[in-house]
Amino acid sequence: MNSTVKNRIRKSKEDKIFDFIIYLTAALLVIITLYPMYFIVIASISNPTDVSSGNIVLWPKGINMRGYEQLLNYKQLWVGYKNTIIYALLGTGMNLIVNISASYALSRKDLIGKKLITFYYLVPMFFGGGLIPTYLIVKNFGLLDTRWVMILPFSVITYYIIVGRTFFSNNIPDDLWEAAQIDGCGNLTFFFKIVLPLSKAVIAVIALWSAVGHWNAYFNALIYLRSDVLQPLQIVLRNILISNQTMSMMMTGTAATEARQAAELIKYGVIVVSSAPIMCMYPFVQKYFNQGVMIGAVKG
User: Fold this and answer.
1) Of the listed ranges 1-5, 181-185, 237-241, the one predicted with least confidence
2) SS3 assignment, position 198
3) What pLDDT is attached to residue 256?
4) Crossing angle for the helix pair 233-250 and 75-107, to the nearest 10 degrees
5) N or C: more exposed end of the chain, with fewer CB within 10 A?
6) Local structure of 65: helix, strand or coil
């Protein structure tokens, strides 16, 4: 590369200043995003007195694992983990079956009553029947206090259907369906053997969104589940926090101080335990989240 070309691609002073501002802004956003998570981790292994007094900023002090030791001694914690994994796997599978099928059907131009069906899906997205009617319906179907209440009643998610319909409309051309018909391919064969293999991106996006939603779900379990053996992780962790805070309030003197310190450690430990699996998984699936943003940004 000669000197003339180098001079042409050399950045001006204004470009360098602009790049510096962009990099500085990006660095600040990264710090603002990551520091709270980092603080929670170091606070969970630090002396609670130093945490409450504000002495913990960048490095842990008085490192100990008491919070995690007490947290991991709760047998119900492992029951909650097992239940959450079951709900996440079965719920994600059900979400994919229902929403991918519906979104593909709505993407077909030859679907009779397409606008009416779309309107039927859109109305519940903005208007709900309310908590009490929903509770009565769940109860009448015999799903109350069963595992299926976390999987079946709320498997239809309109936003997932819209994203899937947009993807199918823009990426599965009509010519492909016409060519498949010429080869004697029916609707089901076309869907399972041609459409689904070409739709791995949107399937991965909806699966990830659904899995994260089921992992963090707690409200439905709080309303519809009563048995301890069915409670998901989030409810178990909530109960641990409440019991420890109540215990620390009932004690006095040195015992109360120690109980409050243990409650502080457990509080931060609970956040780490509940968030760690998703945080560890995210770097490996980040590209699918990015694809999901782009899919949802395209008008169908």
Assistant:
1) 1-5
2) helix
3) 64
4) 140
5) N
6) coil
